[in-house]
């Protein structure tokens, strides 16, 4: 009987232990990789590091002349 009481007490105390691996916070990215579909010179940069952007917002503008010339030649 004494062993059963001791086991119940140990299980009860084990439930009182706090999980030391729990963390609360905010995840922040320090770097995001962007891949362009075209390899063209950049003609305008509209934002700088640290700027907050909305979804779909233009970050920079590429020079379309080379890709336009290739497209025209293919026609």
Give helix and strand order, one letter per element, not per position.
HEEH
Report the portion of residues in β strands.
Answer: 5-15%
Average pLDDT score: 81
State the helix count: 2
Radius of gyration: 30 Å
Please mark out the parts with pLDDT under 50 across 5 or more consecutive residues, or reply none: none
Structural class call reads alpha+beta
Residue share in helix: 25-40%
Largest sheet: 2 strands, antiparallel
Distance between the termini: 92 Å
Largest beta sheet: what is the strand line-up? 1-2
> What's the total count of β strands?
2
Protein name: Secretion protein HlyD family protein
Structural notes for this entry:
The chain is of the alpha+beta class and 75 residues long. The chain has a domain at 36-48 and 58-75. It has two helices and two strands; from the N terminus they run αββα. The model has no long low-confidence stretch (mean pLDDT 81). This is Secretion protein HlyD family protein. It comes from Thiorhodococcus drewsii AZ1.
Sum up the structure in keywords.
alpha+beta
Topology:
Elements: H1 2-14, E1 42-45, E2 60-62, H2 65-74
Antiparallel strand pairs: 1-2
Quick synopsis:
The protein is α+β, with helices and mostly antiparallel strands. Helices cover 31% and strands 9% of the residues.
């Amino acid at each position: 009987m004494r062993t059963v009481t001791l086991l119940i007490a140990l299980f009860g105390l084990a439930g009182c232990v706090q999980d030391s691996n729990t963390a609360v916070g905010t995840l922040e990215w320090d770097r995001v990789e962007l891949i362009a579909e075209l390899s063209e010179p950049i003609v305008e940069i509209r934002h700088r590091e640290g700027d907050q952007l909305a979804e779909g917002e233009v970050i920079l503008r590429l020079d379309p002349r080379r890709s336009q010339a290739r497209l025209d030649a293919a026609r």
